[in-house]
Design a protein that fits this description.
Elements (H helix, E strand, L loop, with lengths): L9 H19 L3 E5 L7 E6 L5 H19 L5 E6 L4 H13 L4 E5 L7 H9 L3 E5 L9 E5 L1 H16 L3 E7 L5 H14 L5 E7 L4 H14 L3 E6 L4 H11 L12 H10 L15 H15 L2 E2 L4 E3 L39 E2 L1
Parallel strand pairs: 2-3, 2-4, 4-5, 5-6, 6-11, 7-8, 7-9
Antiparallel strand pairs: 1-3, 10-12
Amino acid sequence: MSRPVNHLSKMRMLSLFVAPVLAATALSGCGSSSSSGGAGGGIYLGLSNSSVTSSFRGIMINSFNAEAKTLKAAGEINKYTVQNAGDDVSKQIQQIHNMVQSGVNVLVIDAQSSTGLNAEIAAAVAKGVTVVSTDNLVTTDKAINVQVDPKVIAAKTAQGLVDIIGGKGKVVMLEGIAGTPVNETRNQLAKDVFSKYPGIKVIEVNVDWNPATSKQKVAQLISQNPDIAGIWDQGDSAGGAANAYIDAKKPMPPIVFDGTTDFLNIWKKSIASGYKTVGAPQPPAVVVDAIWLGLKAHKDKCTATSNPIALDTPLLTNANIDTVWKAGMTDEPGQFVNPVPVPRTALDKYLSC
């Protein structure tokens, strides 16, 4: 049974996911975590992550570390490292350079800038490093770019919301961190849908992929705009928005599901009362697919069949919510439904070897 979530500070909320990562990085110093030893085919695996200011990233890093540990135990790699750049493009460039100099063979990147890392990536590839960009993608084709299909996460959910509200009314867009590649891509895909309907008025609100910020700002909007027809969001914001309505004791409009378990519980519970919405999972474990693609491409000298690679994710509705929702899912903000998007055995179709 779902319950309203208390307002949590950003620091407390992120500590649930980022603290374990920072604790691990502190062990080796300089903002990195590493593990070495064993044969592993000589593969040194790296992750260059731009930011740890969202719970998605904390879960993503934990997913990377867990898979790297498994691969090391299986002898597929012999060493791995994580570097966090703290939202600083220059720092991320330097960290990538340092990892390449230290012998990284396969490098996964979640980029702070879509263009700012391109020269360093080209230099890494010229030295034989296989680079895979995920989540926030880069524009260079020197890297294999892989993401959960943004057309489903953004465009199809926007269209589904439009259909539910009848193509008219005020639609609030809860947006992520301004300027980041994934935020701008998803926002534009959704806007392209909404712009087709003259009866829709879009209200853009930046919430930085933070459920506490989402709850606060939606609570303000409720008093100013009691006639909101629907809420579209692209990540880690749906639960905060829903709980703003619950706390205000107001009927909840359709809110697009963003992969978080707290909102999934609210949606599931509300169906009995006639509530209807749409959404799409966007698991942080996409980083695991990035690892597998990178290892395969490096070993077998593969290239991507398309760039970027768009991994399948289902469009969820009331009819198929039970394919993702499971009893006992947590109501804690910032937790994601987190299966690996595509099994390792199904990734070959994305590579030409």
